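Long-time lurker, finally posting.

We've been working with Glycosyl hydrolase (Microvirga terrae) and I want a structural starting point before designing mutants. I don't trust myself to interpret raw outputs, so I'm hoping someone here can both generate the structure tokens and explain anything notable. Sequence follows.
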Amino acid sequence: MRLEIGLAALACLMFASNMQRSAQADNASPVPKLGVYDPHKLLRDDTSFSLEHTFLYWQDFKPEEYRSFAQDAAKRGRQVLVTVEPWTRAPNWKDGSEKLLTNVIEGEFDREISAICHEIGASDAPVMVSWGHEMDETQGRFPWANKDPQIFQKAYQHFVDQCRPIAPKARFGWTPKGEANLASYYPGDAYVDFIGLTLFDLEAWNIAQNDSRTFADKFGALHGQVANFGKPIVLVEFGVAGTESYVEKQLSCAQEKLRRFPHVEALVYFNDRETWHWPKPHGQPDWRITDRRQFGCHREFTSLP
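Top reply, 14 upvotes:
Generated this for you. Predicted structure of Glycosyl hydrolase:
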């Protein structure tokens, strides 16, 4: 079921300038920037967004498509955030996963790295780049995930070492899923410019799990796992699905609520249907929103609960 929920509930942007002044007054963190992954262009003309997210499959990279995407984002005043997914070259993109990271370290994917990073480096504006996201997930979704942490670290470092000279303005991000062992995959301060987090909030799943936590509760648990690294933090994938009242409650002023958490730089909404099948009977939740005018944060925050 497609959600037509107002993004004003997420952004509180009608009061953006006032909130920035409030942040200075009460020493809270600045209001994070707002971004979106929006492949269906449902929010293309919304000027509230300053970040545009896209996913690149490195074995199937199309430079012309990326160039067009980046140019379009620039015209609309949006900085580009890229998640590079290092799939294998097998027809199903997964076979050979046991050797994938070793092959990356040995340079067998340097052609893919070069092709993507040349396009990233051609941008006048700095591009945010995440590589090998959710490397700590254990469900078999990604061929680079749930592998030896030290091997992942070396593969991530190889990507950055190859990419940084080609795209010197790029900022590189490490984006775990949030499992208990995520810290073991951290590739080192010299290789991480920001940390990405992921939060998908499905009402039916929460009911089944007896999980009544708020957005702030859930984000706080993730934030606590990475805050000690001292890096800027970006909620790179965020989605909510459920009844209209539930979505309104969870989205309402979410951007503003992140001010209580140190180092949070941006919130990026995942405006698409889920690409992964959740456990039955939840299927593929639809996180999409299309109209930011219906709901709003009709008050200023001078302090946070």
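Before you design anything, note these points.
Residues 8-270 form a domain with the TIM Barrel fold (CATH 3.20.20.80).
Confidence is low (pLDDT under 50) at residues 1-5, 7-26, 298-305.
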